[in-house]
Request: fold
Amino acid sequence: MLCQSCGRQVEERAYCPYCGAHIVGNTASARGRGKRSHVFALNPAEHLYHLSFVSTFFPHLSRQRTHQVRWLLFLSVLVVLVVSAGRFVPLSILLAALLMPVFYLLYFFDSQLYGNEPFRILGATFALGAVLGGALGIGLYRYLLSHYQAGIVPATGYLLLTALALPLLFQALMLAGPLILYFTRPRFDELLDGLAFGAASGLGFAATQSIVAAWLLIVGPFQQPGLLSSWLVPTLRIALLTPLVNAATTGLICAAIWLRRDHAPQPKKLGVLLTWPVALCLGMLGQVAPPLLSALIPGPILQLLWYALILSGLTLILRHVLHSGLIEKARALGHGQRLVCPECHHEVADMPFCPYCGLALLSISRRMRRLLVRAEELV
Reply:
């Protein structure tokens, strides 16, 4: 049969293996590649606009491993909150600041995303982001905070600095490591490489920045008095919201930049959200909005709400960019052999998409690609 989306002859399956178009009633949807919103290209079990942080920021995980990570992350956050509820403030802050970075490091090594170069990649992204975040926190953030408390910095100037200038500077520094890799590692040219580099840099930056900002609490008494909410709310923000906002903004910008590197021909002009200037503006807005709203409409619960709303919006936009980018820039893995789809377990050819479940096969980690191909060779 003829796919009405890309014009290629395809077998009668659920999806076109070349462009990913959904085939309904033996007819490939002519409305285009990005309309299959009922199936997320990175996880066919989810809707495109399903608010899932794990499948968005850990796209190379299988469905089973995604569920495992989701539960492990939930239990880890619960442990951190229990420690915080006990008012063991130094321990809770350290655990919260290191939670997401540790998860991402484990994801890096478990999926073997970059073969023999994991330490170089992590050095240019996670480590550099951590160094820049810590250096900025030591040299600038705490200095300005102490002067504001002394009454030297006026309220308006402090607001413009902390809610506008510094977030934009943060975003620029978080892009430094990924951009180094963009120019020095051209072979990492996949859309998901940009996401991984940006997320790692953002998480490293958030970890050291949170530790430096709370250093006086970390070196203070091990157990401190105060209302329960006064410790739980900041702990939750440090553990999840701030690092994921950084990962979302930097990952979004880098994903759009890496789309320019992908030389696969596109059938039409990419959507506005997939262009790097728009992604850059959205990333900067995502950095500015939470502290600005928290300053204009203050309150611990409201601060949590502003961060959660911005993070949710950024995650949905990021899912749209990843989904549309993988479809519009569809390309095969390039191994030239058949493999078993890790999602539906059907044997598929070296195509951009699984024709049975619609999975974008580029979402399979490099390690899993080798294992699946090797397993097929042994059969």
Remarks:
- The two ends are 30 Å apart (CA to CA).
- Residues 28-34 have pLDDT under 50 and may be disordered.
- The beta strands are 23-24, 27-28, 339-340, 347-348.
